[in-house]
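STRUCTURE:
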C-alpha cells in the first residue's frame, strides 16, 4: 500500500510539474484556466500531505514537522518579529511631510487589505504588489521610496499583514487577457530550472517540502506567501517578499532579478492566486 501511495504521489508530482512546463509561451488567453490551475495545485498538496490541515499550509515548515511546530508555537508567545510590528504601526500612523499618510492611498485606510494583494491593475496592464503600492504612495506624497529588501518595507508590510491575519487570500484575475498572461508568466517563472544548481522554485517547494537542505526544512509552495514578510533566524532580521525571491535565486546560484521586476511580480501573482481561500498568517517567523 505504501508503495502504491508513493507511486501515486510521484505521478502527481511529475504530472503537476509536467502540466506547468507544457504551457507554451504566448499561450492564447482562452486556454489559460487559473481556477483549474489553483484547484490542481491545492489538491496536489492536500493529497501529498493528507494529515496537514488545509489552513496550516500557511505556516510553512512548521506544518511539516511536529517538533518544529511545537517549538514555533512556544516562540510565538514572544515572536521575534514583534519589533517590526511596533515599528510598522508607528511608521504607518506617522504623516508624510505634506500631512497625508499611507491610509490616504489605500482602500479601508490600509487596514485589513493584505489578502487582496497583489492585484492586476487593468489601467496599467501590470501586477501591483503591496510593496510597490507602498512606495508609489510615498512617491506620490513627495517621499523617497524605501528599499524593497530592507527593514522599513518589511516593517510596514508586517503591520499591514497583521491587520489581515485570519482573512482568506482573495486574489482576483479580471476579465483581461493581460491578467491571464501575467498569471501564466508567473507560472512559467516558477517551474523551470535555472542557475548553477539547476534548481527551480518547484524543485524545493513542490517536489521536496518537508525534506531538509542542510539545516533548513523546505516549506510547501502552497500558502508560502501568506506568511510574508518573515523574520528569519539566518537573516537575524525581517525580510520582504522581494528579499525572499532574490535570496532563492542566489541560493540556487542563479542571477537574481531586480526586486519588483515584472517577473517577480507575476510569480507573486501566481503563487498568491493559487493560495486563494487560505488565511493570511503574516508576519511569520522561520529558522
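SEQUENCE:
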Amino acid at each position: 500500500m505504501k508503495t502504491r501511495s508513493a507511486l501515486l504521489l510521484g505521478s502527481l508530482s511529475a504530472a503537476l510539474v509536467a502540466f506547468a512546463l507544457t504551457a507554451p509561451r504566448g499561450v492564447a488567453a482562452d486556454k489559460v484556466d487559473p481556477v483549474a490551475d489553483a484547484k490542481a495545485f491545492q489538491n496536489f498538496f492536500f493529497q501529498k500531505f493528507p494529515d496537514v490541515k488545509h489552513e496550516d499550509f500557511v505556516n510553512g515548515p512548521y506544518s511539516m514537522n511536529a517538533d518544529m511546530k511545537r517549538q514555533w508555537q512556544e516562540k510565538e508567545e514572544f515572536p521575534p518579529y514583534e519589533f517590526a510590528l511596533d515599528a510598522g504601526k508607528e511608521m504607518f500612523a506617522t504623516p508624510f511631510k505634506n500631512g497625508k499618510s499611507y491610509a490616504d492611498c489605500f482602500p479601508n485606510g490600509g487596514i485589513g487589505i493584505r489578502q487582496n494583494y497583489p492585484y492586476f491593475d487593468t489601467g496599467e496592464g501590470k501586477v501591483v504588489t503591496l510593496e510597490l503600492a507602498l512606495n508609489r504612495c510615498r512617491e506620490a506624497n513627495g517621499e523617497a521610496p524605501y528599499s524593497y529588501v530592507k527593514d522599513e518595507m518589511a516593517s510596514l508590510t508586517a503591520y499591514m499583514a497583521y491587520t489581515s491575519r485570519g482573512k482568506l487570500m482573495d486574489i482576483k484575475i479580471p476579465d483581461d487577457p493581460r491578467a491571464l498572461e501575467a498569471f501564466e508568466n508567473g507560472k512559467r517563472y516558477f517551474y523551470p530550472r535555472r542557475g548553477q544548481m539547476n534548481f527551480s522554485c518547484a524543485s524545493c517547494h513542490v517536489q521536496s517540502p518537508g525534506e531538509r537542505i542542510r539545516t533548513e526544512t523546505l516549506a510547501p509552495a502552497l500558502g508560502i506567501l501568506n506568511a510574508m514578510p518573515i523574520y528569519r533566524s539566518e537573516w537575524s532580521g525581517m525580510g520582504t517578499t522581494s528579499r525572499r525571491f532574490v535570496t532563492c535565486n542566489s541560493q540556487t546560484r542563479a542571477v537574481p532579478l531586480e526586486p519588483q521586476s515584472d517577473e517577480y511580480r507575476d510569480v507573486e501573482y501566481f503563487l498568491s492566486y493559487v493560495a486563494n481561500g487560505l488565511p493570511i498568517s503574516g508576519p511569520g517567523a522561520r529558522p
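REMARK: The chain has ten helices and seven strands.
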